[in-house]
Specification:
It comes from Thiosulfativibrio zosterae. The protein has 469 residues and is α/β, with parallel strands linked by helices. 31% of the residues lie in helices and 20% in strands. The strands form three sheets. The chain has a six-stranded mixed sheet with strand order 3-4-2-1-5-6. Strand 11 and strand 12 form a beta hairpin. Helix 8 packs parallel to helix 9, helix 9 packs across helix 11 and helix 13 crosses helix 14. It is elongated, with a radius of gyration of 26 Å. 34% of the residues are buried.
């Protein structure tokens, strides 16, 4: 191994379990895979979980890299290459991939037992640090405890940053912004307006300092002000549409009216058939699930825009796992769907039924058109003309999110719901979760919309708890 200025990264197993393409994400720097990591990859290859699939993909990639290489070539390091997606297929020459071809040992504190796999990796890192004192040797791991132990024994360590969408979750696109209080009065003289199908549109010239995205909501701070949706921005010309007001009782959706401006923005997108992908972020009690279900029922049962409502979520328990559950796929998913049942109960009481029979009939019809599906069986399926709801989407990785969204067929709509402040998955953070990933990637597409809901409407108790606990 050459003594040069390039960094040497030791990859922990969990990095490759999280992202098989991590091998190609360290630019010109070198990578070393300890034998312990290869052993752990071998142990984790069986099963149908996302982690097992990632392990198998990692094994295939490593096999392609070492294919036909001699032992001497492997010992000297194998060159890594990848195709640049933005430079007409140009091949980028990266660093080298090394394997632990001979034992690398170093002294560890007596309190760290040497038979543990994590401690073997630490020994490898410390040995490399001694062998190559001029190189910056870094352990890359998503395990916080591993990073703590690494620092304690004097080995530099870092998290895997390549899957981080943003530097800070506070920078995440909210989907809406405030206009100047007198925006309409100041710009009315240079705005072109017209009516189309009962909808009011405006056209206004903007300069390069204004950064608006398709379907971004522009809200006036005063109640009597101008609130609109950016429909298109092209050549410094923005097309705006006057926002519908779902806060009025006469425009209620399945008996539900928006209680605040944020919910009104969400309903504008949930009820728009031209918007095929909607993401709603918000803390508990902001109305994400209730608004989505109300819009889904209205468009499925009343307007017949969709044939079925499909709801699914990541099955990660908050406390101890309760073990295997009996029954069909839908019956197994029922314990995870408490939010669905709670909101259906509210919605079945909002239609003003005068008799128990009418209420029971509506509830039965709702249950018949709502299907609960497990994410484990989504791969390979195509859903045509379905209203698909992905609940608790903050617990999904970017790859899982891609797998689920690509299930949508012609005429389907997908709504992702979640709260990035309540992530239960051990290796995801606010900046690496799949929900943050899709919000950032979809903000440029004219058929998608995002709204971050901040104002709680569940109860004053829930709102106080969100703010103070």
């Amino acid at each position: 191994m050459n003594q040069d200025s390039k960094r040497l990264f030791i990859l922990d197993t969990n990095v490759l379990m999280h992202d098989p393409m991590a091998l190609f994400n360290f630019e010109e720097h070198d990578i070393l895979l300890p034998m312990t990591v290869l052993e752990e990859l071998d142990a984790g290859k069986k099963g149908m979980s996302e982690v097992s699939r990632n392990v198998r993909e990692t094994n295939r990639l490593i096999d392609q890299i070492i294919c036909n290489a001699t032992f001497e070539e492997i010992k000297a390091g194998l060159s890594l290459e990848r195709i640049h997606p933005l430079k007409d297929g140009q091949t980028l020459h990266l660093g080298k991939l090394y394997f632990e071809t001979e034992p690398l040992k170093a002294e560890l504190p007596a309190s760290l037992p040497s038979h543990k796999a994590d401690n073997h990796i630490l020994q490898t890192g410390l040995a490399l640090k001694e062998l190559y004192p001029q190189r910056n040797v870094t352990l890359v791991t998503k395990d916080i405890n591993m990073r703590i132990k690494s620092s304690a024994v004097g080995l530099h360590s870092e998290d895997y940053y390549n899957d981080r969408v943003l530097e800070d979750a506070d920078l995440l696109y909210t989907g809406w912004d405030y206009l100047d209080e007198h925006f309409f009065e100041q710009n009315a003289h240079r705005m072109k307006s017209w009516l189309n199908d009962g909808r009011t549109f405006y056209e206004i010239e903007i300069d390069n300092t204004v950064h608006w995205y398709p379907n971004q909501c522009l809200i006036s701070p005063n109640e009597a002000g101008f609130s609109a949706i950016v429909r298109k921005v092209e050549n410094n010309i923005a097309t705006l549409e006057y926002m519908q007001n779902f806060q009025q009782s006469k425009k209620s959706i399945w008996g539900i009216s928006a209680r605040n401006e944020e919910q009104n923005m969400a309903l504008n997108f949930l009820m728009d058939p031209e918007i095929e992908f909607v993401s709603l972020l918000g803390v508990a009690g902001t109305g994400k699930t209730l608004l989505t279900l109300a819009a889904a029922l209205e468009q499925t049962l009343e307007d017949n825009l969709y044939s079925e409502i499909i709801m699914t979520r990541a099955t990660i328990p908050v406390g101890e796992d309760i073990g295997f559950l009996p029954g069909t796929e839908e019956e197994k998913m029922t314990p995870w769907m408490g939010a669905l049942m709670d909101n259906l109960e509210v919605l079945s009481q909002t239609e003003g039924h005068v008799s128990k029979w009418e209420k029971d009939t509506t509830t039965e019809l709702m249950n018949r058109r709502i299907k609960i599906k497990s994410m484990n069986f989504m791969r390979g399926r195509t859903f045509q003309k379905k209203f698909i709801i992905l609940d608790e989407a903050q617990n999904l990785t970017p790859k899982q999110m891609k797998t689920l969204i690509t299930r949508a067929g012609e005429g389907s709509k997908i709504v992702c719901l979640g709260n990035i402040g309540q992530i239960d998955s051990p290796y995801l953070t606010e900046t690496t979760t799949g929900l943050t990933y899709v919000v950032d990637r979809f903000k440029y597409w004219e058929h998608s919309a995002h709204i971050t809901l901040k104002q709680g409407e569940r109860s004053r108790l829930a709102e106080f708890a969100n703010e103070n606990l």
